[in-house]
């Protein structure tokens, strides 16, 4: 407050000095003109210009009035008869000075009003610019907390007051964590497109708000409401979109399940019928039919395992139960569950000499390996080569599954690990089409173990799938 008073006092002194300087300058100029024979009526115009300059260069009526009265007294003293006295002998001089004062007062009043209007226009322009900048920033704002923080920051920058935004479902507070009563703040509604969604409390401590401040606060409240409403609508649209996609995926999965279950079940039923109907069937034929039934049953079991695993993953449940496991044991167990891997393919396994132990869910990691090996089976010809190698470095166990098939098509590489993505151009003679969940499950299981998985095409032809999980060597 003391600094403000000093500034105001200094400004008043400056205005008085300007007024005195202009009046003195006008007097000197009038004396010079009078010396060269210019009529006193024209000299009075010089003082009129001086009064206008005083009104223009200062702020307030009092300086213009002071300049006008001073000019009349100086004019009376130096330019009216008798000279160098304040007496007036000529009635024309009285009328001239009276009209001068009236004209000076009017012109000073109009100048001051013009100044006020100019200042108001500048303030309105600044306010409009601030409101435009605020609106522009709210257009690009996303996220509930960021929108509220933006509104609170604008109000604080342009009013100096902190705020509290209270929504219907939560409260966001800016400033110190204090308790406030209704005497400490003013409330403004936050209204969306169709309803009120919250309250904005301006902590002005019962000091009131100027017109400009109130306009900024109301605009900020409206912008918060519109932006939050837009965010809610967008979130609802995204939720509906996800639900539609989920329903579409469920429908696709059900269609795939119904189609892919029918094929092995038909084969199983046909083989069982042949066994029951053919009493004179020899042992090798009967054994082959039983083998076919076993293979079809195992394939159905693997597909069901993938469906159950995907259900657990999408439900958000904790689907991995980790415990220390030896990598070699998991590899051996997984390779036994891939039908025809050793009989119909050239399958090779390469394991490190050291014992590698990983904290993992052995069943889920085995399912990852089974899915990758089964995928390699589907994309290689009869007698093709498939390899599985494990290496250890930097406290990680790396699993590499390679085949000599046609590799991953370029159009599928970006989404090979997405749900319901099927490969094209499969060359396997004994393949069965899956439901497009195997690689998705691989990715989710590996990530749940804190690892990573990716694919790449081999230079010699075929695909290579690599994944790693945290592990350690046992000395």
């Amino acid at each position: 407050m003391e600094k403000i008073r000093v500034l105001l006092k200094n400004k008043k002194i400056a205005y008085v000095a300007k007024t005195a300087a202009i009046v003195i300058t006008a007097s000197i100029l009038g004396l010079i003109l009078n010396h060269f024979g210019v009529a006193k009526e024209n000299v009075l115009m010089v003082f009129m210009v001086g009064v206008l300059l005083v009104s223009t260069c200062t702020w307030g009526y009092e300086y213009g009035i002071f300049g006008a009265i001073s000019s009349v007294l100086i004019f009376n003293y130096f330019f009216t008869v008798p000279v160098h006295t304040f007496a007036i002998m000529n009635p024309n001089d009285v009328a001239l000075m009276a009209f001068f004062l009236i004209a000076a007062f009017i012109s000073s009043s109009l100048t001051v009003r013009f100044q006020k209007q100019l200042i108001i226009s500048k303030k309105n322009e600044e306010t409009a610019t601030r409101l435009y900048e605020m609106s522009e920033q709210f257009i690009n704002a996303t996220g509930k907390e960021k929108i509220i923080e933006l509104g609170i920051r604008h109000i604080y920058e342009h009013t100096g007051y902190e705020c509290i935004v209270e929504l219907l479902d939560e409260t966001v507070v800016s400033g110190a964590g204090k308790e406030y009563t209704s005497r400490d703040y003013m409330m403004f509604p936050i209204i969306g497109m169709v309803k009120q969604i919250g309250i904005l409390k301006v902590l002005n401590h019962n000091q009131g708000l100027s017109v400009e401040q109130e306009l900024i606060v109301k605009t900020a409240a409206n912008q918060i409401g519109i932006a939050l409403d837009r965010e809610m609508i967008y979130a609802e649209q995204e939720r509906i979109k996800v639900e539609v996609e989920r329903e579409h995926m469920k429908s696709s999965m059900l269609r795939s399940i119904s189609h892919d279950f029918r094929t092995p079940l038909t084969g199983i039923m046909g083989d069982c019928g042949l066994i029951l109907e053919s009493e004179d069937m020899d042992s090798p034929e009967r054994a082959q039919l039983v083998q076919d039934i076993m293979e079809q049953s195992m394939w159905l079991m693997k597909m069901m395992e993938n469906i159950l695993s995907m259900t657990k993953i999408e439900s958000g449940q904790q689907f991995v139960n980790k415990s220390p496991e030896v990598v070699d044991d998991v590899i051996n167990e997984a390779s036994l569950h891939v039908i025809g891997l050793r009989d119909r393919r050239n399958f090779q396994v390469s394991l490190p000499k050291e014992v590698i132990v990983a904290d993992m869910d052995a069943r889920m990691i085995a399912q990852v390996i089974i899915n990758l090996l089964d995928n390699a089976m589907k994309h290689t010809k009869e007698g093709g080569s498939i390899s599985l190698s494990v290496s250890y470095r930097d406290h990680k166990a790396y699993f590499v599954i390679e085949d000599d098939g046609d590799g991953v098509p370029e159009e599928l590489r970006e989404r090979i690990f997405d749900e319901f993505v099927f490969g094209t151009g499969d060359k396997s003679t004994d393949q069965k089409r899956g439901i497009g969940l195997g690689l998705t499950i691989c990715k989710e299981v590996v990530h749940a173990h804190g690892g990573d998985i990716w694919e790449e095409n081999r230079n010699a032809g075929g695909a290579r799938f690599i994944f790693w999980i945290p592990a350690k060597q046992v000395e």
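The chain has eleven helices and twelve strands. The two ends are 78 Å apart (CA to CA).
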